[in-house]
Structures are given as structure tokens and as C-alpha cells.
Write a structure and sequence with these properties.
The structure holds two protein chains of two kinds.
Chain A: H1 3-17, H2 20-39, H3 50-74, H4 79-84, H5 86-91, H6 97-129, H7 135-165, H8 169-197, H9 207-212, H10 215-225, H11 228-234, H12 237-240, H13 247-271
Chain B: E1 2-13, E2 16-27, E3 31-36, H1 42-50, E4 57-62, H2 72-76, E5 78-81, H3 93-103, H4 111-117, H5 133-145, E6 151-155, H6 163-178, E7 182-187, E8 199-204, E9 207-212, H7 214-221, E10 225-231, H8 233-240, E11 245-248, E12 254-259, H9 264-272, E13 278-284, H10 288-297, H11 300-306
Parallel strand pairs in B: 3-7, 3-8, 5-6, 6-7
Antiparallel strand pairs in B: 1-2, 1-4, 8-9, 10-12, 10-13, 11-12
Helix pairs in contact in B: 4-5
The chains are: A mainly alpha, B alpha/beta.
């Protein structure tokens, strides 16, 4: 068995053992259930499919939750092993540093994907059973699950980057919280502030591109604009004409947000002294 | 064939020189004890041999390769037990060993026998969190023995082990060297057990204060032995006529006499000729602690002159 599989399998089993998987799945599933069934009540008379409502509200919540879960899951992946003293021993084994970091990342990624797919999927299945949603809404819901996983991977990769850069676990934890605040809250506030302060002089040509520099915004753009019936609901219908990014581009940007920090983390880790 | 060979090896972190001018060779099937104070550079030296860090100066060859750029086949032949070995607390002992076996590319079927060998069979299904220090150390030894390594590096392996465990530990090492495994053990004190090793290297502030087999080092050190004579201490002192350094014990029933190895027989004959004044004799050769203190405490300039190398 390849060392990558060995590391990934170990992380996944650790996730089962320390209840991370159960906790994250129940949390995401519970929220999805609540939003699916509570969200459908007040919209009964409008020309909006309840499932589309769910996509809007669920994506807004995911933006806060998934980055936090991913950062907490991954921040001590390397620095934690180094601090415990396990890393020193592992490096004397016939495994490369790339195999260690990729293997562990895949294990953590599987935990995140499992939680998102099972948690949201179960709520989706319940919605289907009660007969809500048309084909378009289902595509939007599937898109939500896929991008949720990608958003998780992007922040997991950022967590790994933090983990290889610092010398202490507690530092990594602090930076992880900072990164969460920055991307999930501060970035949007700063953009809006800049927009208001410049009285809109930051043109329509620059502004959307600035959103691509934040994986959370890319996620929001995809889920609120990619599908027609969701657009109507999310108040983005008017905006859709001016949004120049196709869903495929947004997906590609999210994948890049996962790949680049992970590649950086791997190259830093390769040079890290033990 | 030499398994480990270091040529003028030095390692500096920034301006701090941790190791300087280390020369040593360990032939196959030998056991080297690396002795030194905390912070003398033992762990750094082990890391260099493992290829975890690169030397600032000099050349290292381990198992015929440069460890810092060696491939997986090289690492396959190494076993390592770090100081204060740490495992994932949530895993059982058996699962931990199985994980490391898989990392080595081995079948996990070899694990039960290895656990048996280090005496952990009955605890294999317990979580590592519940293990005592000695059990963790044994688990650490088990993982180091995975795949029968050609070179085994043990960093402070016997710290925190009770005397029985230490005996078992060195028995396993004796068996390994018997089948041709080369072993390097680091330790901060030189005990009787560690003296069973073939070679001793004493590190002091990053330099090699002494290197060789124990008998050679004893001879080179020229430490005095102590003879304790019981009887009428004052009378014995009078008869010796100031020829030796003496200490009369407080109850005046015994006297400690220091003498060099060459004077030993002369002293014994003199004492034997004293008749009833001297009732009993005890001979204490210089202890390993004395030897260690001698080498680790002596000035560095005397090493350059005396050349404490074998």
C-alpha cells in the first residue's frame, strides 16, 4: 500500500475515533434539515421553489461554517505532529515529505467531503421525498454540495500552509482564526468600505475580480448566480447581467484556491528543518 | 566494512556551533555508545546520521550513502527510536505498530511477533494513552526493529526504564549485534550496561572528547584505583610513610588509598606485609562515572595534544 493511502486512511480513522466526522456531519446535516423544512414554510405562496430557498440560506451559512471546520481540522496537521515528536520519527521512514503532506491532506479532505455530502445530501434526500424542487433547483443543490466541498478544501489547504509555516501549535491556531476572520468577515467589509469611500469609483471592471481573491466570495458568487431560480431569490437577478464569470470559471478558481496553498505548503514543508 | 563514517563533521545553527570536527567510524555489527551531557550534541549527531539535517562542514557516509540525499531503500535499512518517543494516544499499541509497518511497506503480519519480543503482547489492544513510560519505550523499540534494520539508532533509550527493563533492552541489542546489526545508542550517563557496548564516544560541547573501546579509554585516562584497607587506620597510614594519597575514614577503622595502576601491586604487597594491623582489603577500579567525568571534564586543549582517538 502506498504511504499516501496509509496516511490518508489513518487521518480518516482518527476522524472517526475522535468524533470529528460524526460531529461535522451531524452539524451540517442538522442545519440543512432545519433550513430545508423551516425555509419552505414562509415561501409557500411565492413563485419560488422551496429547494432554491434552501440553497440560498444554506450557502450563506456554509460560508461561515465550512471554513471554520476546515481550518480547525487542518491547522495542526504538520505542526502538531512536529510538536508531539511524531514527525521526526516519520521522516526517518522510507516516505517522502510530499507523501506525508498529500496523504494527510487527502485524509482530512475525505472527512470534509463525507460530512458535506452526507450531511447536506441527507437533507436533500428528505426534501426530494417530500416532493419539493424541480430539475433546475436540484442542479443548484448539487452545485451547492460540490462547491461546499471545494470551499472546504481551499480552507484546508490554507490551514496546511499555516501548519508548515509556524513552529508552535498555538501560533497556528491563532493564525487559523485570523485567516477565518479575514476571509469570511473582514474582506467583504473592507471591499464594501472601499466601494463606499471611493463613491463607486472602484469600477465595475475591478470589483468582481477582487471577489475572486477570496474563496468564500467565489463560493457565494457561484451559489447565488449560477442558477436562474436561485438568482431570482437571492436578489442577484439584476446583477447577473454584469457578472462576467461563468460557473465553470468560478469552479476553476475554487479549485485553484485549494491547489495553490497546498502546493505552497508542500514546498515549504520540503525545506522545513526538523 | 564501516557502517557509519564521519569525517570532520560540523553543524552550526546560525552562529551557534552545535558540533565541530567530529571524526568517527563504526564498523558493522558493533555497538557505539554516544555519551555526553544534555546539550552536548548527541541528538544532533544522530539527526545527521539519519539524514534529517545536513552537516555544515565535513562528510558523512552511512551504509555507503550520503544520508541527506539517500533514497527510500536507504531508509528501509534504518531503525530509529527518538528521545521521548511519542505516539498517537488514541491508537492501540497494535494499531500503532501496524501503521508504522505499513509505512515501511511491510505486511502487518510481522507485528504480533515483534510485540511479543518487546513484551507488549498482552497490552496490544490497549490505547497508547494508557501506556506507562516503559511500555511506550518498548513500543518505540518495536517500531525501530520493524523490517530487521541494518543500522539501529537509539536516542536515550533507557531513560526512565527500571533495571529489569534495562537488562532486557540490552539483551535485545546484544542479540541484534550478534546477527550483524550495527547499533548507536546515545545516553547522558555511562552505566555498567552501556559499557557492554563495544565502542564509546564521549561528546563534550560539540566536540569529541574521547572515542574508542572502553579498555583503551581506561588506559588512556590513567585514573587511580582506590584501595580501602580496614584495621588500624592510623597505624597503616604511618607505615605507608606518605607514599600515597590517603583519606582516613571518620571512625578510624578504615583508610582509602589512591594509587595508579602501575603501583597497584607494590601497594598490595606493602599492605599484606603489615600483619594484623590491616584486617581486610577492598579494591575499587575507576568507575565508569569517574571515566566519564574525566573525559567530559578535561580541557579541550589536552585532547588536541593527547589525541583521544582509537
Amino acid at each position: 500500500m502506498s504511504p499516501i493511502v496509509t496516511f490518508a486512511a489513518k487521518e480518516f480513522r482518527d476522524g472517526i475515533r475522535n468524533k470529528w466526522i460524526a460531529g461535522a456531519t451531524v452539524l451540517l446535516g442538522g442545519l440543512a434539515f432545519a433550513l430545508t423544512f423551516l425555509g419552505s414554510a414562509p415561501t409557500g405562496l411565492l413563485d419560488v421553489k422551496p429547494l432554491a430557498v434552501t440553497v440560498v440560506s444554506l450557502s450563506s451559512l456554509t460560508i461561515f461554517l465550512i471554513p471554520l471546520i476546515a481550518l480547525l481540522l487542518g491547522y495542526d496537521a504538520i505542526v502538531g505532529e512536529a510538536e508531539r515528536g511524531c514527525l521526526l520519527l516519520m521522516l526517518t521512514y522510507p516516505v517522502s515529505r510530499l507523501e506525508i503532506i498529500v496523504g494527510k491532506f487527502l485524509g482530512h479532505a475525505t472527512i470534509l467531503a463525507f460530512a458535506a455530502i452526507v450531511g447536506y445530501g441527507a437533507a436533500g434526500a428528505a426534501a426530494a421525498w417530500t416532493g419539493g424542487g424541480d430539475a433546475e433547483s436540484w442542479r443548484a443543490f448539487a452545485g451547492l454540495i460540490v462547491t461546499t466541498v471545494l470551499l472546504g478544501l481551499a480552507f484546508l489547504a490554507l490551514a496546511y500552509l499555516i501548519s508548515v509555516l509556524v513552529a508552535e501549535r498555538s501560533t497556528a491556531a491563532g493564525i487559523a482564526v485570523g485567516v477565518w476572520l479575514l476571509f469570511v468577515i473582514v474582506y467583504d467589509l473592507a471591499l464594501m468600505g472601499a466601494l463606499v469611500a471611493s463613491k463607486g469609483r472602484i469600477g465595475a471592471d475591478v470589483f468582481p475580480s477582487l471577489l475572486l481573491l477570496n474563496p468564500a466570495d467565489v463560493y457565494r458568487l457561484f451559489n447565488l448566480t449560477a442558477f436562474e431560480n436561485v438568482r431570482k431569490l437571492s436578489g442577484m437577478a439584476g446583477l447577473s447581467a454584469s457578472v462576467q464569470f461563468s460557473p465553470a470559471v468560478l469552479l476553476a478558481v475554487l479549485v485553484t484556491w485549494a491547489a495553490v496553498p497546498l502546493a505552497l505548503a508542500a514546498s515549504v514543508f520540503a525545506r522545513r528543518e526538523v | 566494512m564501516s557502517i557509519v563514517s564521519l569525517e570532520n563533521v560540523g553543524k552550526a545553527y546560525g552562529s551557534q556551533r552545535v558540533l565541530d570536527g567530529i571524526n568517527l567510524v563504526v564498523p558493522q555489527g558493533k555497538c557505539l555508545a554516544l555519551i555526553g551531557h544534555n546539550g552536548a550534541g548527541k541528538t544532533t549527531l544522530l539527526k545527521l546520521i539519519l539524514g534529517l539535517i545536513r552537516p555544515t562542514t565535513g562528510r558523512i557516509e552511512v551504509l555507503g550513502a550520503d544520508p541527506a540525499i539517500a533514497d527510500k531503500a536507504f531508509r528501509q535499512k534504518l531503525g530509529f527510536l527518538p528521545e521521548n518517543v511519542a505516539f498517537h494516544d488514541q491508537l492501540t499499541g497494535g494499531d500503532t505498530l501496524a501503521f508504522y509497518a505499513r509505512l515501511r511497506g511491510l505486511e502487518t503480519t510481522c507485528c504480533p511477533a515483534l510485540l511479543e519480543r518487546v513484551g507488549l503482547s498482552s497490552a496490544a489492544t490497549r490505547r497508547v494513552r494508557t501506556y506507562s513510560k516503559g511500555m511506550r519505550q518498548r513500543l518505540g523499540l518495536a517500531q525501530a526493529l520493524l523490517g530487521t534494520p541494518k543500522l539501529l539508532l537509539l536516542d536515550e533509550p533507557t531513560t526512565g526504564l527500571d533495571p529489569v527493563l534495562r537488562q532486557e533492552f540490552f539483551e535485545i541489542i546484544r542479540q541484534l549485534t550478534a546477527i550483524g546489526t550495527t547499533v548507536v545508542i546515545s545516553s547522558h550517563i555511562l552505566t555498567e550496561l552501556e559499557a557492554r557496548t563495544n565502542l564509546v564516544a564521549i561528546l563534550r560541547e560539540g566536540r569529541l572528547a574521547a572515542f574508542g573501546d572502553l579498555d583503551t579509554l581506561r588506559r588512556e585516562a590513567g585514573l587511580p584505583l582506590t584501595v580501602r584497607a580496614r584495621g588500624d587506620a592510623k597505624a597503616i597510614a604511618r607505615h605507608l610513610n606518605g607514599a600515597f594519597t590517603r583519606t582516613i575514614l571518620s571512625d578510624e577503622r578504615a583508610i582509602d588509598i589512591d594509587c595508579s595502576l602501575t603501583q597497584k601491586m607494590a601497594l598490595l604487597r606493602a599492605l599484606a606485609g603489615l600483619g594484623d594491623i590491616c584486617a581486610d582489603l577492598e579494591i575499587h577500579p575507576p568507575s565508569l562515572d569517574d571515566l566519564y567525568l574525566h573525559y567530559s571534564g578535561r580541557s579541550l586543549s589536552s585532547i588536541a595534544e593527547g589525541g583521544g582517538r582509537a
